[in-house]
Amino acid sequence: MPVAINCCTQRQERLWDSMKALDPPCDAMIVTSRHNLRYLTGFTGSNGVAVATASGTFFFTDPRYQFQAAQEVAAKAKAVTGPLLNQVAALATRRKWKRLGFEQDHLTAGQFELLRSKMTRHQTWLPRSGVVETLRMVKSDEELACIALSVKTNSMALDAALRRLRAGMSEAELAAEIDYQMCKLGAEKPSFDTIVAAGVRSALPHAHPTRLPIGPGVLLIDMGAFQGGYASDMTRTFFLGEPTREMARIYKAVLEAQLAAIDVVRPGIKASAVDRAARNVLKAHGLDKAFMHSTGHGLGLEIHEPPRLGKKEGTKLEAGMAITIEPGAYVEGVGGVRIEDTLRVTTQGCEVLTPTPKELRVL
């Protein structure tokens, strides 16, 4: 979904306003992250680099994207041959920029050395990773609409795939069916590798689907879609046949923890407080040691974005953020349960976007 030119221009202005508040200031900011490029310029291709300045943004890509860049990019776009960073270095020299910001988390050591080799000794490099990602944390209404549509498609795909679940179907076959249904319903692609884990393998939080048949017991499915460039994320845990007393107890505890975490989500609260709400419930059920990851994360143009909802995360939630809430409990040799929804933070609290029911379900 193309981003409106004026929207990207406003984002570039916000970037520069935030850059001015940093010490020391820089004359130009080199942006190489593919997701940040899309956010700032609207470019959806795979090879580009932008240079943001107070007076405007420059964009370079290769000739494959010449026509695409002319249609999409909200900047002075130019298609060139050879390494794009050579063009950046030449532009910096011509403009006599002294202080150059760069995304150190998105440059390889080789790329950084190439840039440095082309620059003069009077130019200073200023690490500025995270600046654009911070702007991306609070979504516009248009972005939230894309996320909500992706969430809806994701849930519809799960329903459609479960209707095709048959005896003897493997984890990998069900994962493939889920991915197919997502794309059939309008998604561009899964937002990550779909997780289907049955039986004792459900105790592996990020299990990869295998050719093993799905038998009686636990069935954990973690899935997400990209639609309009924006991600959704959902986990549901089902049972093929009546659950054991232990697994039913674990499911009840995880659901209680998830609802407790959702209940505290509101503007101004620290991300760590959301994590603590879920963790306290699981501790009361004797399952604190079985919860081995954070309670959630932001999402948008990427499946994992700030803020992270973890024990030590001090970021305060703001209206317009899109986050997940996904506590879990995993017992080796027995099984695991995770329940995850996508939410948006509102001025009064939050709205759960995921429509798929969460009560214990026997397939």
Q: What report would you give on this structure?
A:
By secondary structure, the chain is of the alpha+beta class. The chain folds into two domains: 132 residues, Creatine Amidinohydrolase, Chain A, domain 1 (3-Layer(aba) Sandwich); 212 residues, Alpha-Beta Complex (Creatine Amidinohydrolase). It is 36% helix and 22% strand. It has ten helices and 19 strands. The strands form six sheets. A six-stranded mixed β-sheet has the order 4-3-2-1-5-6, with helices on both faces. Strands 7-10-11 form a three-stranded antiparallel β-sheet. Strands 8-9-12 form a three-stranded antiparallel β-sheet, with helices on one face. The chain is elongated. It starts with a helix and ends in an 11-residue tail after the last strand.
Evaluate the radius of gyration: 23 Å
Give the number of domains.
Answer: 2
Kindly state the percentage of residues in helix: 25-40%
Task: Spell the H/E element sequence.
Answer: HEHEEHEHEHEHHHEEEEEEHHEEEEEEE
Nearest-integer average pLDDT = 96
How would you describe the shape? elongated
Question: Which structural class fits the helix and strand makeup?
Answer: alpha+beta
Please state the oligomeric state of the protein chains shown: single chain
What would you say the CATH architecture of the largest domain is?
A: Alpha-Beta Complex
Number of DSSP strands?
19
Main sheet makeup: 6 strands, mixed
CATH fold-level label of the largest domain: Creatine Amidinohydrolase
- What spatial order of strands do you see in the largest sheet? 4-3-2-1-5-6
CATH superfamily of the largest domain: Creatinase/methionine aminopeptidase superfamily
The CATH top-level class label of the largest domain: Alpha Beta
Cα distance, first to last residue?
Answer: 36 Å
